[in-house]
Amino acid sequence: MPVRLAAVFALTVAAVASAGPADGPFQTPPAWKARFAGVEVTELAATAPRPMKGLAVRIDLTAPGIEFLATPDNGDREGETDGLKTSTFLKEHKLQLAINAAPFAPIHKDERLKQDVVGLHVSRGKVVSGEQGKLPALLLTKDNKARVASPRFDLAGVWNAVGGFHVVLKGGQVIEGDKSIHPRTAAGVSADGRTLVWLVIDGRQKNYSDGATTADVGAWLKALGCEEGINLDGGGTTTLVVEGLDGMPRVLNRPIHANKAGAERVSASHLGLYARPLTAK
Fold first, then answer.
1. CA-atom Rg of the chain in angstroms
2. Number of helices (H) and strands (E), helices first, in the chain?
3. Where are the domains of the chain?
4. How many angstroms separate the CA atoms of 8 and 31, rounded?
5. pLDDT per residue over 266-276, tens digit each?
6. For residue 6, is pLDDT > 60?
7. Which SS3 state, helix, strand or coil, does residue 196 take?
8. Are 189 and 227 a contacting pair, CB within 8 Å?
9. Residues near 150 by Cβ (< 8 Å), separated by ≥ 6?
10. 3-state SS of 168-190?
11. Full DSSP string of 106-140
């Protein structure tokens, strides 16, 4: 092969390699399945840079019937909220989908014990927990405008809000952050503000899913069409639950609490979704 042609060939191969796989970070393209009106779910998997499995929920914020609920406070009792498993939260509030949300303390084995949320948490216009340090939050208005923000927060019009640990996607750019590998829960917003994505990535389960860095989370959210993204609480708390056809909660991912795969952790903070059923054909 002539030297000039060989050089061009080498540059072409390098450009293709740097562009990454056609499916972005995923082993296969997302296959979205409608679960409720304006709500789709897909399973996700990757083999690089390590084995990862997850699920994403794509929510059309303009769809009729879409409404959110962050965990309410516990009234005059001690602590800010009473801890619940995500499945219990979904069942008690008759939600269609729910994820764990803000970090919290302490961890309890049993439900309905007092807990405090770490960072911002707003439920139906009531501030349950105020901002803390530089911790960011996902803010949602009553008419379903969504944005990822950092302190100091402008809470005018905010109806629900849940805090997180890191901004992982800003202006479409993935932000390098926590390089440790854990199960992750995250949320992202599209550039036009019409779509909210929930993302869970399982972890700490050898030969199934190792977990993700926050940069991995940002890359997945970007590949799912988001412009902004936030890493919420994760680890053993990472859980995504859907209402089944029988009205009972069904855990979609594989959480891992106390090193037990499939075990849910009690959480002080959740974000739930009300959505209408699909129109029968």
1. 19
2. 3, 23
3. 27-274
4. 37
5. 999 999 999 99
6. no
7. strand
8. yes
9. 134, 136, 137, 167
10. EEECCEECCCCCCCECEEEEEEC
11. ---SSSS-EEEESS-EEETTEEEE---TT--EEEE
